[in-house]
Design brief:
The chain is an alpha/beta fold and 364 residues long. The protein has 11 helices and 18 strands. α5 links the parallel β4 and β5. It is elongated, with a radius of gyration of 22 Å.
Length: 364
C-alpha cells in the first residue's frame, strides 16, 4: 500500500478538476543527502533532463558537484536558476549556437569527430564513447550497435589524432564520457564501469564520466537502488589520480513527485471497468513511455475494490495510467500517482487537446 504524505493529501483535499503536481522537497533533500554520503569520493552531476523544475534544482544543489544538460535551452535554464553551478553539456546533435556555449561549460561532451572539428575553444572536453559490450537487464540500451550516441573506438581514435595535431589548441582533452544503458542494478552498473575504466586507462586518461542508468522500480516503490554498494564499488575501482563522475537523474528525483488528478467518471465498456480521470498522459507520460502501471493511491474511496483501468481524457486509447489494477474509487475521488518526479511533466505532450496545465506545489 502506498502511503501518501500529509502535505500531498492536504493539496488533494482542495484539488478540483485541474490536476496538480506536488514535489516533496524535504524528501528529495533527505534522499539526495543519503546518495551523496553513499558515493563519497565520486563526483555527481545531476542529469537535468530528468526534472528541470527550479525548486528541484535548488534542493539538489547542495548535494551535487554540478549539472548535466543536453541542449542550449537547458543550459540557459540552469544558468538562470543556479548561475554558479558547474554545467556539463551533452547531446547527440549540437547546433552552431549550442557549440558557441562550449567556453562557458565545465565539460563539453563531444559526440563525433565532426563535432570536434566544429568546436571553437577554449573548451574542456570529454569524448563520449560507445562501447559494444554486453548489457543484460537494461530497460534502455544507450550504447552498442544500432545506437547513434557517442563514438566507437575508431571515432575516438580520429578525435585523439585531431587533438594531437593541434598541440597549441585551446580545446583540451580531459577524459571520456560513457552512458551505455539505463535501468540497471548496482552490480550490473559496476560491471559496465569495469569495461569503461579499462578502456579509459588504455587511452591514458584519468577523468571518467560513467553516466547514469540507476534502476528505478515502478512496480515496487519501496525498492531503491543500492547506492551504498555502488559507491563502495566505485571507490574500490578508482586509482590514485583518477576522477570518477556519475550522472544520476531519475534515481534522484522520481520519488519526490506526485501527480494528483480527480475521477470524473466510472463506467463499464464490454464488461471492463474504467475510471476516467481529469488529467491524462499529456501531463504524466511516464507509464506510456515505460510501458508500466503507474503506482498510485486513492484519496477517498469507499466502493468495493475491483479490477479497474485508469485512463485520462485524451482522444487516444494509449491514454492509460494503469490497466486492470485493484482499486476502490468513485466519482470525485482523487488519485495520487506516486514516483512522478522524473521524466513526467517535462516529457509529456502538454498541448494535445489543449486541456488546462496542472498546478505545481512544493512541500518544504
Amino acid at each position: 500500500m502506498i502511503e501518501v504524505p500529509e502535505g500531498v493529501a492536504y493539496v488533494a483535499r482542495s484539488l478540483g478538476d485541474v490536476p496538480a503536481y506536488v514535489y516533496d522537497l524535504a524528501a528529495l533533500d533527505a534522499h539526495t543527502a543519503a546518495v551523496r554520503a553513499a558515493t563519497k569520493g565520486v563526483e555527481i552531476h545531476y542529469a537535468v533532463k530528468a526534472n528541470p523544475d527550479p525548486e528541484v534544482l535548488r534542493t539538489l544543489a547542495p548535494h551535487v558537484d554540478g549539472l548535466e544538460v543536453a541542449s542550449g535551452g537547458e543550459f540557459a535554464h540552469v544558468r538562470s536558476v543556479l548561475p554558479d553551478m558547474p554545467v556539463s553539456v551533452g547531446g547527440p546533435g549540437k547546433t552552431a549556437d549550442e557549440l558557441a556555449l562550449a567556453p562557458s561549460a565545465y565539460r563539453w561532451h563531444v559526440e563525433s569527430p565532426a563535432e570536434l572539428r566544429r568546436l571553437a575553444g577554449p573548451a574542456d572536453v570529454l569524448l563520449r564513447v560507445n562501447l559494444d559490450v554486453p548489457v543484460s537487464g537494461a530497460s534502455l540500451a544507450m550504447g552498442g550497435r544500432a545506437t547513434p550516441f557517442g563514438m566507437d573506438p575508431a571515432g575516438v581514435a580520429e578525435c585523439l589524432a585531431s587533438l594531437a595535431s593541434l598541440a597549441s589548441s585551446s580545446v583540451r582533452l580531459r577524459g571520456i564520457h560513457a552512458h551505455l544503458a539505463s535501468g540497471l542494478a548496482a552490480p550490473a552498473l559496476l560491471a559496465l564501469a569495469d569495461a569503461v575504466l579499462a578502456y579509459a586507462r588504455g587511452l591514458g586518461v584519468t577523468e571518467v564520466n560513467l553516466g547514469g542508468g540507476m534502476a528505478v522500480a515502478y512496480d515496487d516503490p519501496d525498492a531503491r537502488f543500492d547506492w551504498a554498494a555502488y559507491g563502495a564499488g566505485l571507490r574500490e575501482r578508482a586509482r590514485p589520480g583518477e576522477t570518477l563522475r556519475i550522472e544520476p537523474g531519475r534515481a534522484l528525483t522520481a520519488y519526490c513527485g506526485w501527480y494528483l488528478t480527480t475521477v470524473i467518471d466510472v463506467k463499464r465498456v464490454h464488461g471492463e471497468r474504467f475510471a476516467v480521470l481529469s488529467g491524462g498522459t499529456h501531463h504524466l507520460r511516464t507509464p506510456v513511455t515505460k510501458g508500466h502501471d503507474q503506482p498510485f493511491a486513492v484519496l477517498g474511496g469507499g466502493s468495493p475494490a475491483e479490477p479497474t483501468t485508469l485512463v485520462g481524457r485524451l482522444c487516444t486509447p494509449k491514454d492509460v495510467f494503469a490497466r486492470k489494477v485493484p482499486a476502490s474509487l468513485g466519482v470525485g475521488d482523487v488519485v495520487a500517482f506516486a514516483m512522478a518526479g522524473a521524466y513526467a511533466w517535462n516529457i509529456s505532450h502538454h498541448d494535445f487537446l489543449m486541456h488546462p496545465k496542472p498546478a505545481f506545489h512544493h512541500l518544504r
